[in-house]
From TrEMBL:
It comes from Zalerion maritima. Splits internally a 1,3-beta-glucan molecule and transfers the newly generated reducing end (the donor) to the non-reducing end of another 1,3-beta-glucan molecule (the acceptor) forming a 1,3-beta linkage, resulting in the elongation of 1,3-beta-glucan chains in the cell wall. This is 1,3-beta-glucanosyltransferase. Belongs to the glycosyl hydrolase 72 family. Gene3D superfamilies: Glycosidases. InterPro entries: GH (IPR017853), Glucanosyltransferase (IPR004886). It is a lipid-anchor; GPI-anchor. GO terms for biological process: fungal-type cell wall (1->3)-beta-D-glucan biosynthetic process; fungal-type cell wall organization. Residues 387-397 have a biased composition (Polar residues). Pfam families: Glyco_hydro_72. Its EC number is 2.4.1.-.
Length: 431
């Protein structure tokens, strides 16, 4: 009897000390809202301590989350994770610190390639495995289907493959019965592709095929600068009435340095706050690129072999702020607390984007048919307009469930595909 009573007391005590999970985030119109109806703005940090997965060392996550909370961060972005690892400890540590996560679904060997893209069942399965692992955490804000797939203007024909990935992962999410976690794309800031890429990924009128948010990696504001000279005025103009949430997934130019982060006042101020949902500063850990906000120790020789050292930098331990960058960002965020609009009072004022026509930089012609699972750019896919009138894709490719290696995916196509490819070459589609 006494042991049962003690057990109940212990259980009750544990229950009363557990911190409630963060409210889930969803997208409505061009804004993010929490489940309690408040608009959500990102004050984020790029976080990738180790190449494979930074969310497996609970003690390290607790140390980092504590300092991030002092900094004022409420989101981290993770570029690569291992879907087979245990993430409960780290996800709880960040949840306890009031920090959400944005997670890339691709891996080093499943990412969409820019010059010779394909989209196959191996990629769908790999992306889906990451979603399976993380969907149940309430502090997962969203998933990326790609990061800077397109890096130059002549790679824009990979865009339909990015859109196909969003289509299939949204279908995967919905078929699994998961909550409607937003799925989007993180783009490099390429002047020749503005605003065609962001418009293309949200055009066509079929929500099952368009991204749920668009994010931009932009380093055009290099302190000292301002709203106009930094190109932020152009970014704002091109994002007016955007149909889905838009935010900076990387920012924080370090030339000439030190970083003042004065762009944060523009992003969260009157000039941009009604359009943009915040920013992610690059990056948490100090590395050779000199973008770090913290360090775990002095740089060491690159030949040093240790479990917590990579490329000459220690990857774990007590995080120490890099001065003055850490404190400059902290000072900026302390003064910026946008409230936005309450979801119950929000009526989206957005515009559906037209699918862009080709330009000197943009090569995709309108609302093209999206690739089917198993289709390759050098196979049956074409980037001329071929979608149905309602914007839905008329898929002709077939899925290859037996594909075992995305790196060695077969580039063979059916006889019909070969003939079609020849016709297309004659007419110059593949120039």
């Amino acid at each position: 009897m006494r042991s049962s009573t003690l057990a109940l007391v212990a259980l009750y005590g544990a229950a009363t000390t557990v911190k409630a999970a963060l409210p889930e985030i969803h997208a409505v119109g061009n804004k993010f809202f929490s489940s309690n109806g408040e608009q959500f703005f990102m004050k984020g940090i790029a976080y990738q301590l180790t190449p494979d997965d930074p969310l497996v060392d609970t003690n390290q996550c607790k140390r980092d989350a504590s300092l991030m909370e002092e900094l004022g961060a409420n989101v981290i972005r993770i570029y690569h994770v291992d879907p087979d690892a245990d993430h409960d400890g780290c996800m709880t540590a960040f949840d306890d610190a009031g920090i959400y996560t944005l997670i890339d679904l691709d891996t080093f060997n499943t990412q969409i390639l820019p010059d010779d893209p394909w989209w196959n069942q191996t990629q769908v399965d790999a992306f889906g495995a990451v979603m399976d692992t993380f969907h149940s955490y309430s502090n997962v804000l969203g998933f990326f289907v790609g990061n800077e797939v397109i890096l130059t203007k002549n790679q824009s024909e990979a865009a339909p493959f990015v859109k196909a990935a969003a289509r299939d992962l949204k279908a995967y999410r919905d078929n699994k019965g998961y909550r409607e976690i937003p799925i989007g794309y993180s783009a490099a800031d390429i002047r020749e592709l503005r605003p065609m890429l962001q418009d293309y990924l949200t055009c066509g009128g079929n929500k099952s095929e368009t991204i749920d948010f668009f994010a931009l990696n932009s380093y055009s504001w290099c302190d000292p600068s301002d709203f106009t000279n930094s190109d932020y005025s152009d970014l704002q103009e091109q994002a007016e009435q955007f149909p889905v949430p838009i935010f900076f997934s990387e920012t924080g130019c370090n030339v000439p340095g030190p970083r003042l982060f004065e762009d944060q006042a523009a992003i969260f101020g009157d000039e941009m706050v009604d359009t943009w949902s915040g920013s992610m500063v690059y990056e948490w850990i100090q590395e050779r690129n000199d973008y770090g906000l913290i360090s775990y120790g002095p740089e060491v020789d690159q030949t040093v072999a240790a479990s917590n050292v990579e490329d000459g930098f220690t990857r774990s331990g007590t995080p120490t702020p890099v001065s003055p960058d850490f404190y400059n960002l902290q000072s900026q965020w302390e003064t910026l607390s946008p409230t936005g609009v309450v979801e119950s009072e929000y009526t989206p004022d957005v515009s559906t984007r037209d699918c862009p026509s080709p330009t000197d930089g943009w090569l995709v012609d309108g609302n093209v048919r999206l690739p089917s699972i198993g289709e390759t750019f050098t196979g049956t896919f074409e980037t001329s307009t071929s979608a149905s009138d309602d914007g839905s894709a008329q898929a002709t490719g077939t899925a290859d469930d037996d594909d075992e290696n995305v790196g060695n995916v077969s580039k063979e196509v059916t006889r019909t595909g070969i003939l079609l490819g020849a016709v297309m070459m004659v007419f110059g589609f593949w120039l």
